[in-house]
Write a structure and sequence with these properties.
Quinone Oxidoreductase, Chain A, domain 1; alpha/beta; globular; 28% strand
């Protein structure tokens, strides 16, 4: 089968190679026994794959390996006792192995793909939307009527956070870096759109401030995120797309009675199958109600996976970047 492998840790421009390899065995590192083999139609591309191309991500399989954590497609084979069967439309979280014509995922991380979503949207469903729900609902304790400010709001995780926040009854403020991303954030449900190059903190305060800030970016804007909070507000730390990891003087938390909350979905979810199922059910409800529709941005054929990673690495992605495999 055709697949993309990371063959060296030299970054997106040179680390990836299109290869012919054997079909995967129906086993998976996250679960004992057999997993679900998926005939991949589309694969999601995310910042972790950029980091993996440099050996900078916490998951470091031996070289060469097939990256790609989330896919959508048709069930090829399913283990005995599974509710899934060959031909079912599914979205799946496979951790690695998704940039290929066939991928293997744990049964508990493989979900029926709602009829409202196509394969490209399905490839952007699990990583971003499970993370957004975990961050906002579980870690952020979001309440109906609160205000959520989202950094990087034109990207995959940003648009997911906007849609989930709206679905959970929040008001939303998007912070973006370009006109294109502003349009995408508005389409994803932002009530207000601010520019990261401007005085977004002051403008957010003029709007009343934020109860929750969703921050997948990190870097220099972190301090202003704290300053934009209402009393009792929470900054949710999801990642560091800007590259630098911010530090905070804890007296700022004390003086303003605010929280900095880590939201590491992967480490939390892989050992909690019942929680994963509960989030999938909650998201199915948000999809049925029309709140969740993954925003698909740039699409690349499988052989151009390096171009997809370079787009993300250069902060040029708007919406979810997807590889069209079939």
């Amino acid at each position: 089968m055709k697949a993309i492998q990371i063959t060296e840790l030299t970054g997106p421009a040179s680390a990836l190679q299109l290869v012919e390899i054997d079909e995967p065995q129906p086993t998976h590192m996250l679960t004992p026994g057999h997993g679900v083999v998926v005939d991949v139609k589309a694969a999601g591309v995310s910042f972790p794959e950029v980091l993996q191309s440099r050996g900078e991500y916490q998951i470091k399989p031996p070289l060469p390996f097939v990256p790609g954590s989330e896919v959508a497609g048709l069930v090829h084979t399913a283990p005995e006792g599974s509710s899934l069967k060959a031909g079912d439309r599914v979205a799946a979280f496979c951790l690695v192995g998704g940039f290929a014509q066939l991928a293997v995922a744990p049964a508990y991380f493989t979900f029926p793909l709602p009829e409202q979503l196509d394969f490209q949207q399905g490839a952007g469903l699990i990583l971003n939307y499970h993370t957004a729900y975990f961050a906002l609902h579980t870690r952020g304790r979001l309440q109906i009527g609160e205000t959520v400010l989202v950094h990087g709001a034109g990207g995959g995780i940003g648009t997911a956070a906007l849609q989930v926040a709206k679905g959970l009854g929040a008001q939303t403020i998007a912070v973006v870096s370009s006109d294109e991303k502003a349009q995408i954030a508005s389409h994803a449900g932002a009530d207000h759109v601010l520019r990261s190059s401007g005085s977004w903190k002051d403008e957010a305060l003029e709007l009343g401030g934020a109860d929750i800030v969703v921050d997948p970016v990190g870097g220099d804007r972190f301090l202003d995120s704290l300053r934009s909070l209402k009393e009792g507000g929470r900054v949710l730390v999801i990642g560091f797309a800007e590259g630098s990891i911010p530090e905070v003087r804890v007296n700022r938390l004390l003086l303003n009675n605010v929280d900095v909350v880590g939201a590491g979905w992967g480490a939390y979810a892989v050992s909690k199958r019942q929680y994963v199922a509960e989030v999938a059910t909650a998201l199915s409800g948000l999809i049925a109600a029309g709140h969740v529709r993954p925003v698909v941005g740039a699409q690349f054929p499988l052989e151009q996976a390096a171009e997809a990673l370079k787009l993300i690495d250069g902060r040029g992605a708007a919406g979810k970047v997807v590889l069209d495999v079939a």
